[in-house]
Amino acid sequence: MFNWLVTKSIFFLEVFYIKQDLPINGQIRAKEVQLISDDGEKLGVITINEALDKAEDKNLDLVLVAPNVNPPVCKIMNYGKYKFEQAKKEKEAKKKQKALEIKEIRITPNIEEHDFGFKSKNAKKFLEDGNKVKITVRFRGREVNNVKAGESVLNKFIDELSEVAVVEKNPKLEGRNMFIMLAKKA
What's the confidence (pLDDT) of residue 32? Predict the structure, then answer.
């Protein structure tokens, strides 16, 4: 029972961890502050004790929002709610980001014309979807002695996809593989 409770509370802490980066309440070291109320009204320059009393009367936190001005600016707000909404906004921003994928197409140096057409059509579709395409030529056995054939196949791909793609990395030989990277034209 206790072990389950500890596991659940650790999970809760991981999900709703609030990183505190603004000084609040007793952490504020200034003697006088310019105070902004919870509804955005400027209350003027007052001592830190008066500001803390006003925040306590409203059951809210006193948060230092601009420490580098003279006098520092503090705002009365619900700090926990503020941080929760900030985390929520960051999470939404991450959801809207599109993860860039690299699609790989593997070929051999002696690829047939039909296979070449099929692979180039797939590469074009991947590029139009916004992905990068890595085209790899695999050399098997003695094919590695004739890297010019593989390079010519890759150049043929570059020519075929030149209207939708731009070459990000030129043909490069690594071991028994030669590859290029293509990205969508801007």
Answer: 87
